[in-house]
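wait is this the right file?? whatever heres the structure
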């Protein structure tokens, strides 16, 4: 099952994700989150892995407790990421990936922005103002939202 949390910048998407993940984990589910970003750096200049990456190789960082892949890509496609890396998970939450068109919770700072997020099935909207025709939760109603999501995912 894939659920997207999409919406305005600084609207509270990460707050929802970080509240939802422990609840899903407590149900015994294997959970992954894929966060869309406009650019990032997880490595530090001068470190061996940075030098290796900049020599031209893709790099896997591995320790006893964590694994990270630093791989070049010329485009971003959520379905390809899912098919290649995420099949083993029970629930995948995306933060962002609006264009992937997955079922979604939309988090808004302004009701004028709703049109930007209608590329998939909107199952609920989180905002501090009501929007007709949708199940809505205020940003202060996160416990109610989490229960709604659990029911939607059939893991309540």
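ok assuming it is, sequence goes like this
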């Amino acid at each position: 099952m894939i659920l997207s949390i999409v919406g305005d910048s600084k609207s509270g998407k990460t707050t929802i994700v970080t509240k939802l993940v422990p609840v899903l984990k407590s149900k015994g589910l294997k959970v992954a989150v894929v966060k869309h970003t406009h650019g990032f750096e997880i490595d530090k200049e001068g470190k061996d892995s940075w030098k290796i990456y900049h020599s031209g190789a893709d790099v896997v960082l591995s320790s006893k407790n964590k694994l990270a892949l630093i791989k070049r890509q010329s485009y971003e496609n959520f379905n390809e990421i899912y098919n290649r890396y995420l099949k083993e998970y029970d629930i995948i939450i995306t933060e962002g990936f609006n264009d992937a068109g997955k079922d979604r919770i939309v988090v808004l700072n302004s009701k004028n922005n709703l049109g930007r997020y209608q590329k998939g099935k909107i199952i609920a909207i989180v905002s501090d103002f009501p929007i007709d025709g949708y199940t809505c939760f205020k940003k202060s109603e996160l416990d109610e939202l989490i229960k709604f999501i659990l029911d939607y995912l059939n893991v309540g």
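The mean pLDDT is 92. so i think its the right one actually
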